[in-house]
């Protein structure tokens, strides 16, 4: 593997047609600069309106949140699992990952990143398929987690550009692009089933979610996979997390849902999109999805510059910092109540009647946990596992004052 540090990187935007030069990133004296290409400015596409608005001239990044990188490009960088794979690979060939700048890491991403942006010099190891056998991939993942590095290369190619903490791969199966998640050593054994149960519950609660399924496994309960919403056939769709949009580091609880709602209104200018986002917030509160950090909310921009809230993802039973929500609900992270949610709806002008209707619908779906159990039973999950799942869920709900308030 040959490698040299990069101080100048070209950024391209891909939609359905030819890639378009977006601009140039420059690293000088540890400072990162960006300049939009003049032809790209004429198109009027605001890729990142808050922190990198479309304008002529050199723009200096003076925010160190992402090691000085603009949030829109930081969104292309893998974290957690993908970063681990690349660092292992570099160490295997005698390179020190600490010497890599964010621009170097973007070059490794090349054309294989999530969303619609790509970076040059191109990464020659763009996404390709080694094997589609999920059990085989799972074995490689578990071996890699056990520090057996023989498989790092394969996994890097399959999913090294995806974000998020859990091991995952990006696979094209019969022409459809999937993101398939695996278990890390820290995850419970039933994590795929829990996420799938949450997926069904989210549909029932009226959330917009990507198509998802449990891919069968010969050994266990299967692997949770979602259809990628940043791909549509050969077209790529620009995707931006709220973390990247607002420079809100997802590793620290830095956000309130109020900022997410206001960003939603600003970007989409559409109250129906705000209602979709509000429903996501209500679902997270009522289903104890407390790892609701800033990388778990994204927006999509189409080729005409129109923004929408992305389908909801990473919905599962989870605890945030010290058991609280990572993202606060009108200043409350521990025991958010109906009043906090209603106040949140009011910040963007969602009518109280509409907010109450959404809350009722989500609440009804979360109360149907028993029915969900039946639904999953036909998928042949061991009752023991489901039992644990339900007990954990029910315990939380019963101890949750909010739930009692809602029941009144
Ligand atoms: N269906 C999808 N299409 C495109 N990108 C997705 C999809 N689901 C998740 N992502 C992206 O992949 C990242 C990791 O997925 P996520 O479910 O959050 O995994 P993790 O549990 O590891 O955090 C997300 O932060 C999001 O950017
Ligand atoms: Mg996530």
Overall geometric form: globular
User: What structural category do the secondary elements indicate?
Assistant: alpha+beta
Q: What is the makeup of the main sheet?
A: 5 strands, antiparallel
Q: What is the overall number of helices? A: 15
How is the largest sheet built, in terms of strand order?
A: 4-3-2-1-5
Structure, described:
- Mean pLDDT is 85; it is low at 122-130 and 401-408.
- The longest helix is centred in the last third of the chain and has 17 residues, at 383-399.
- The radius of gyration is 21 Å and the shape is globular.
- It has helices spanning 38-43, 71-74, 80-92, 102-109, 134-145, 152-159, 191-204, 242-246, 257-268, 271-286, 338-346, 352-366, 369-377, 383-399, 401-407, and strands at 8-13, 20-28, 31-36, 58-60, 117-120, 168-173, 176-181, 212-215, 223-227, 231-232, 235-236, 238-241, 255-256, 298-301, 307-309, 327-328.
- The chain contains 15 helices and 16 strands.
- α10 (271-286) packs parallel to α12.
- The strands form 5 sheets. Strands 4-3-2-1-5 form a 5-stranded antiparallel beta sheet. A 4-stranded antiparallel beta sheet has the order 6-7-9-8. A 3-stranded antiparallel beta sheet has the order 12-14-15.
- A hairpin with a 2-residue loop joins β10 (231-232) and β11.
- By secondary structure, it is an alpha+beta fold.
- 38% of the residues lie in helices and 17% in strands.
- Adenosine-5'-diphosphate (ADP) binds at residues 114, 162-166, 179, 210, 226-230, 295-296, 298, 313-314.
